[in-house]
Design goal:
2% helix; 5-stranded antiparallel beta sheet; 2 helices; mainly beta
Length: 727
């Protein structure tokens, strides 16, 4: 249990027995108006107790808290404790008690009672009490009210309920999160909020009582409003009954009612928002109409008043029933369309009275021929099949007025056969890295190509895209091709009409160069693999322009070592010192064709190697008779979090290995590194070192100090941490 504070302590001398009372106040359950207390009664050996024979008598204890919680226990006879000696425990009696407070949240001190006896029939008994003070629990304030003083000031009042000593006020705006805006330092029941307020808000307030025990439950929220904001300009349209004005979303406020003016004249007053959209019935047909709207609502709170917002901007002007103006925005007009699909003719209805299009008539013809007329209703386009040639067309519309508009201006469109392109290069195969794409153009009416597009694809993905204008029928792609399957697509355009894509798939195949020369062997003197590689002259094969040398430890994952254009000799200082290392030399031609040679070099060095420098070219050879210790681990950290008694352990991403070498080096042993050479290694400025051993270890890391105590004689012992690695 959580209680650990000792309150009573009695000691009986013979036998040596101690009785203890522990009690702690845990906290208050404010909602239940209760305090929570933990109690523990303990019986244990007293000072000087050395054997179980002193503790064979029976015993019991009884306790209570404030007359609410009662509990009792009796030991077994004989009773042998879990351990001998002082403080060996007899029994533990634990209880948690909830103590109700009165309606004012207060309670007198809790009386905790302990009665004990020792031996058969209660040969030893003692009774004691401990008086524990309990804090007063706060109560929720009553009669919370709010008065709107202005859009930027609100007065909150409430009735203080004892025993609360302070009041805490919270606010939320437009249904957001509750925020504490003030805590009173007195029992005052008035607070004026004059910050964070403005127009077009719903503001809720609530109040809680505060004592040292905590915060009471909050009162029910009280809501007030500020002046509705300015609405948007209302949308208007002609309907059979008159003119339809606005919608509920136009207000964009907390308004519950609205007013509407028609060009400054009030035509709707204090209408509920549910009446939107509102229809102005039988408006004067002799004048034009435009409308604006404003919101209204009750402020709520003490002395609630009606808040009236500002008017919106005016709507568009509406004239009563009249024929529309001729349609505008005819499309296509002066353009080109293909004859293999219907031509979509589009227009814009142009009303005078804001009424929607109800009907249309569309007519079209070849120049000087008779008109063909089509009719429809409210659609503002028509798909028409037209043959190749020049065409002109017009349209007229109706709204709610029974008369047609005048015919629109005449629009023109040229209909042509869809053009075509055919790729002539490449065909099935291509043997160069650079590809000039060529194609032919065809259009039945002999219209020229005005635009073109070329795409290069690999595995259905567009790798290269190029476009141009004019009549060109070739383009050289800038991307260098590699061996494999590729696809080229081309299309052309005249006017507004594109051809279909023409597509061809082809294989790029290059002639390979001669396989390069490659040789290598382990060099014990240098601590690396000596390698020679380079191109091989071949009068038949294409010229080699580059040779790359790579290393692998498994024959699958390769790492580049060097490259050149001439025969080259290098030493690989990072090879295995004991094991097999793969080497691959690859020759390339200018287009990218390749040929390779692979060898495996075996090293059987019995020494430990320590290498440093930018290319690990400075090596130190150490005999493998010393003791080598490798320590591995992972980075860990302890994080402490609020509410947790113990820290949380985290294991990080970083791994560590520490290699420690102990042994003896001889000044006279020329095969191994001596003192001067090891000193040179330890003083290198390059931060990374390489450790290799006969086990096949390759470990990169930093080097610590090398300890080389010198003794006279034929041997020199030395020790130190040779290399560590983290990753």
């Amino acid at each position: 249990m959580a209680a650990t504070t000792e309150r009573l302590n009695w000691l009986r001398a013979s036998p040596n027995v101690r009785f203890q009372l522990f009690a702690n106040y845990i906290g208050a359950d404010i909602a239940a108006n209760e305090s929570i207390v933990d109690v523990r009664i303990r019986c244990a050996n007293g000072p000087g107790a050395t054997s179980a024979t002193q503790s064979n008598d029976g015993g019991s204890h009884v306790g209570s808290i404030d007359g609410i919680g009662t509990f009792a226990s009796r030991s077994q006879t004989p009773f042998i404790p879990s351990g001998l000696g002082a403080n060996a425990q007899r029994w533990n009696l634990e209880a948690r008690v909830r103590i109700p407070h009165n309606s004012n949240g207060s309670h007198a001190n809790a009386i905790i009672r302990m009665i004990t006896d020792w031996g058969p029939g209660g040969s030893y008994g003692q009774e004691g009490t401990y008086s524990m003070p309990l804090p007063t629990i706060p109560r929720t304030p009553t009669n919370v009210a709010v008065e709107r003083l202005s859009d930027t000031s609100m007065r909150v009042t409430w009735d203080h309920v004892s025993p609360s000593t302070r009041g805490r006020i919270q606010r939320r705006i437009n249904g957001g999160a509750w925020q504490t805006i003030y805590t009173m330092n007195t029992t005052s029941g008035t607070f004026t909020n004059s910050s964070g307020l403005g127009a077009n808000l719903r503001v809720d307030y609530r109040v809680a009582g505060v004592t040292d025990a905590g915060v009471s439950a909050y009162s029910s929220p009280v809501t007030v409003y500020t002046t509705p904001g300015t609405p948007l300009a209302p949308a208007v349209s002609r309907v059979a009954e008159g003119i339809r004005v606005a919608s509920a979303s136009t207000l964009n406020t907390h308004a519950t009612h609205f007013d509407i003016q028609d060009d400054g004249v009030l035509v709707a007053s204090a209408q509920p928002v549910s009446n939107l959209p509102w229809v102005h019935e039988d408006p004067n047909p002799a004048i034009a109409h435009r409308y604006r709207i404003r919101g209204r609502r009750a402020s709520g709170g003490i002395g609630s008043s009606t808040l009236i917002g500002s008017y919106s901007p005016y709507s568009a002007t509406v004239e009563l029933l009249a024929p529309p103006n001729p349609p505008t925005g005819l499309t296509p007009n002066g353009g080109v369309a293909a004859d293999d699909m219907d031509v979509r003719l589009q227009w814009v209805h142009n009303p005078v009275d804001a009424s929607d299009q109800s009907d249309y008539e569309l007519r079209y013809r070849e120049p000087d021929d008779a008109w063909t007329t089509l009719a429809g209703d409210d659609e503002t386009f028509r798909d028409v099949p037209l043959t190749a040639g020049d065409w002109e067309w017009q349209v007229r519309t109706k709204g709610e007025h029974p008369d047609w508009s005048n015919w629109s201006s005449t629009a023109t469109v040229e209909v042509i056969s869809r053009p075509g392109v055919a790729i002539t290069q490449p065909e099935d195969e291509w043997d160069a890295a650079i590809l000039p794409v060529t194609w032919t153009w065809f259009q039945e009416q002999d219209r020229p190509q005005t635009q073109w597009q070329v795409q290069l694809l690999q595995d259905s993905e567009v790798i290269e895209y190029r476009a141009g204008v004019g009549a060109a029928t070739s383009f050289t792609l800038p991307r260098h091709l590699t061996e494999g399957e590729w696809t080229v697509r081309v299309r052309g355009r005249t006017g507004d009409v594109w051809s279909d894509w023409d597509e061809t798939t082809f294989q790029v195949v290059f002639d390979p160069p001669a396989a390069p020369a490659l040789a290598g062997e382990w060099d014990e003197a240098q601590g690396g693999v000596s390698l020679s590689f380079g191109p091989v002259d071949d009068e038949v094969a294409p010229e080699t322009v580059r040779v790359v040398l790579e290393r692998s430890f498994d024959g699958e994952e390769w790492h580049s070592i060097a490259e050149g254009t001439e025969p080259t000799e290098v030493v690989d200082w990072e090879s295995l010192s004991n094991g097999h290392t793969w080497y691959r030399s690859t020759s390339f031609t200018a287009p990218g064709a390749a040929a390779e040679t692979v060898i495996v070099v075996e090293a059987r060095s019995s020494a430990v190697w320590l290498s440093g420098g930018s290319g690990f070219e400075i090596t130190g050879r150490l005999p493998y008779d010393p003791k080598v210790t490798i320590t591995v681990g992972r980075e860990t950290a302890l994080k402490q979090y609020a509410g947790r008694s113990k820290p949380v352990v985290y294991r990080g991403e970083a791994l560590s290995r520490i290699v420690q070498i102990q042994g003896t080096v001889l000044d006279q042993a020329v095969d191994n590194a001596g003192i001067d050479h090891l000193t040179e290694l330890s003083h290198l400025s390059h931060p990374v070192f390489l450790f290799r051993s006969p086990r096949g270890d390759r470990i990169y890391g930093s080097i610590s100090a090398i300890n080389l105590p010198r003794r006279f004689g034929s041997s020199l012992p030395g020790s130190g941490t040779a290399c560590g690695s983290t990753g």
